[in-house]
Amino acid sequence: MAANSYYYGGNQQPPNQPTAPYYDSTHAPADSDLPQAYNHGYSDAHYGSPYGAPVNHQPTTGASPFDTVFDDHAYPTNSNSGTGGASSSDISQQGFYHQDTGYYGSRTENIPLQDHTSKSPEATDHIYDAPAAQPNQRRDKRGKVRIGELGMLGANKKRIPWLVYIFSVAQVAVFIAEIVRNGLLTGSPIMIKPQFNPMIGPSTQVLINMGARYVPCMHNIKEIQGSTIPVLFLCPNATKNTQFCPLSELCGFGGDVPNPLFDGNEHQSPAPNQWFRFIIPIFMHAGLIHIGFNLLMQLTIGKEMEMAIGSIRFFLVYMSAGIFGFVMGGNYAAPGIASTGASGSLFGIIALTLLDLLYSWKDRRSPVKDLLFIIIDMVISFVLGLLPGLDNFSHIGGFLMGLVLGICVLHSPNSLRRRIGPDPFYSAVPGAPEPGTVPFYKSPVGFFKGRKPLWWAWWLVRAAALVVIIVVFVVLLNNFYKVGNTCSWCKYLSCLPVNGWCDLGTIKVQ
Known about the structure:
- This protein has 14 helices and 2 strands, in the order H-H-H-H-H-E-E-H-H-H-H-H-H-H-H-H.
- It has 510 residues and is an all-alpha fold.
- Helix 8 runs parallel beside helix 14.
- A two-stranded antiparallel sheet has the order 1-2.
């Protein structure tokens, strides 16, 4: 989620061109030197000398054939131009003749129409040139960013969103592999037995077997390893609620998960440790509806965000938000819930969009309306996360990671950035650095020279945010693998207490 420069016509004269409005008689070329198009069929008696040479003919008092009722005679007369008693129409034609077809350079070169220079505001061509903006005119910088657009400085820099395309193709390929495997194991590409999958996708057991986040495959659980009564698991090819198999077969990946002994020792060794289930589920989805919504969001706001901040920072936020969301879900969701999807990563991107709105609040046409749209999207996604089978903790964790990490990797707020100057290393502007600035990787010492106190203060905020999120991540991992503390009310952040929905995923000993 670079200051714009505006250029107007300059007042510089071409090289070797006199600054006076008309050439004097000493520099006037002979009539024979003029291009034939200038003197063919017309005489100086009608047009006057374009170079200010004295005119020996009596001017014609009739109206010029080039005069129209729309002419305002923008070019002033010059008493020294040698026009004598020429009429006002003749004088205006002299000015027009010289201003638009000035003979530059040597006498033998062609008329450089393509080198026609801009005129000063006091002598603009009333036919072709728009009046230049006056220096004292106030420019309204508010209201440039429309609804749905990114307002960060440098967000208009267009890049190819390679990561979004690669992630999208990978997720589609993985989903195709899911339905193929479900078809091979159960005889149907989508789950229809023992119950129908409302997401129109494979069974939960197939998702677990292919890498969904499933806590029993990742560490010891008191309700499983600490039980003296065997816990039963449905097989990946189950089409009935009576088809059970060992935990190692359900978890798959070569059977590296040891089967529980059910001897009451919850600290069995070796313990299940398929840690990659925090990463693989980012590329998996529970059904056609699930992947459809995620791809729609990814190919819209995700693509625009990558184009604005670059692929490296997009990758950091996308993957970190997805992993952090699954870690939080592993701590607070029911252990029997299998979680998949890129929703946590996309909530991290939504957090970047919210930061972009806050950073560019004064530059937007309708910031309140933009904020309402973001809030509505978040509320809808959060409410959907309360439905059975969906893990709202992944949404919450991904949003928190995206919000905090966005402070670290995005540039400063627009208003602050205008005060402290451009930040060439962390800005979204590609290419060469601006004058007076050196990229960090080229000169680490020079990068910090001449920075204002506001710049240092904002970097302290960034550093503090990075430290906080790292500490929280480490605490959650330690709690997941070693401590195992949870809270009784946290489950209501991911379920509604109706029809026993909050009891789904709870491992019960039969």
